[in-house]
Amino acid sequence: MIVAALGVTIMAGPARADVPSDAVAWAQSEVGQSSYQGQCLQFVADAYASAGVSLGSSPSAVAYWNSTGGHHDGDANPPKGALAFWGATSGNPDGHVAISRGDGSVISSEERNHYDIHVFAIGDRQNYPYLGWLIPPGVTPPGGDPVHSKTIITVKKTAQSDGTQQVYSVTSSDVLESWWHDGGDGVHTGDLITIAQNDIRDADKIVLPDGTQSLYTAVSDGVWETWWRSGDGPHSAKIIGGLSGVRKVIAAQSTDGGGHLTHLVYVLAADGPYEYWWRDGGDGIHSSRLSNINDPIAFARTVQADGIYQVYTATAGAVFETAWKPGQTAPQTGVIIGISQNDIQNIDKIIKSDGTNELYTITSAGIWENRWGGSAGAMQQDNLPGGVVVKKFVDSDGTDQLYGATGDHVQQYWWNSGGSGGSTLITISQGGIRAIDVSKNGVFTQLYTAAGKNVWETWRGGDHTPSSSVLVGL
């Protein structure tokens, strides 16, 4: 581990450059076989398994694309061994994946009327929208160094008590911090942590009561913690390991009646959500597997006023609630909503000031809302074809704001006692939207949109119409 002024680099061991070639050779040897009908993701996973590399676990090709960094959006010239992806359609929400031969063609488990393993040109597949390609995390392309893509896979916005604004841009190889003061000398950006294995999956960040800032970076088998204070550079350590297929991480904290701080980290792995907790100067990190939910794709956490902890875990076909009261009741899990089309993309969950629980589930067709407790209402749906991510925000005046993103634009819906409305806040012609976050600064609401190599900031509020510009460009 190398500690530097701007961040921490985690060095990897040497990678075998022949892995992609071996995977392609195995796939080529299977041409003509018919043992992978409807199992395109399993086919490419077995190709890499033959070369000693695990692709982890994912419910579909689209889910793997959405949860893995290193995208080359729309590039129809993938190198040998790259995984080429096609998006969902109304008839198939799972999408498609094939392995590239490096010559403009791919080896596929099925295509059109072919139900055996065969070779076709990327441009010939017209019945699915082409997404692009990626190199599996940690794999070295033939004749090259490991790919450290700068495609941004998630974004997080925070602010310090002194007014410092911070945006965290997460790629598969590093987490960058951009910070600025309103009216200051512009936006500054630097690396906080770099993972040479190129397997970052997600990150979350909190500020502790003593001013310590803590970043939690999820990698395929665990979580790294990076912490720093004003005037002191960042330090990092891997605090969680031994997991498989990590997807997401959520950081939190709680303080008991005696003022004792408990650190909380929630990790979504291939077999469901886990909780980790510890106290400074205590007896180490404790952990608990909250529920057994295979192949999850997203999760969220809330805490009710009565101290009930809630974790919501989404698979492609359902959202599960796991609820418990620490030290009093054991976690209990049940289904909140099921989607028969198996096309859930993401979720968000909030608890309003009147105790109303609101769960938002975005699918490839639209956004579902479930409400219970407080001013509970019936389940509702908003149309948003091609949805990929959802975010709920309640303004200080009580106005509900719901943000839904597709691959190329972000739609806002709002409602209050005086009415309702909606508009498109930002359209990105190149597509590639992966994540959004929302914050409030004075009368302005800011939307942060991660797409490709950029984070866009969109301002709206007061008498101003929405205005967008690139905040971070890689």
How would you concisely characterize the structure shown here?
This protein is mainly beta. The chain has helices at 19-29, 40-49, 61-67; strands spanning 2-3, 8-10, 72-73, 83-86, 96-100, 105-108, 118-121, 130-134, 154-159, 165-170, 174-180, 188-195, 200-207, 213-219, 222-228, 235-240, 248-255, 261-269, 272-278, 286-289, 298-303, 309-314, 318-324, 332-338, 344-351, 357-363, 366-372, 380-383, 389-394, 400-405, 409-416, 419-427, 433-441, 444-451, 454-461, 464-473.
Sum up the structure in keywords.
474 residues, mainly beta, six-stranded mixed β-sheet, 3 helices, 6% helix, 48% strand, disordered N terminus
Which parts are unreliable, with pLDDT below 50 for 5 consecutive residues or more?
1-15, 145-149
Strand order of the largest sheet: 1-2-12-11-10-9
* Spatial extent as radius of gyration: 22 Å
User: What distance lies between the first and last C-alpha atoms, to the nearest angstrom?
Assistant: 24 Å
Q: Using DSSP, what is the number of strands? A: 36
Considering DSSP H and I runs of 4 or more, what fraction of the residues is helical? Answer: under 10%
Structural class of the secondary elements?
Answer: mainly beta
What characterizes the major β-sheet? 6 strands, mixed
| Average pLDDT, all residues | 86
Q: With helices defined by DSSP (H or I, 4 residues minimum), what is the helix count? A: 3
Percent strand equals over 45%
Shape, per Cα inertia axes: globular
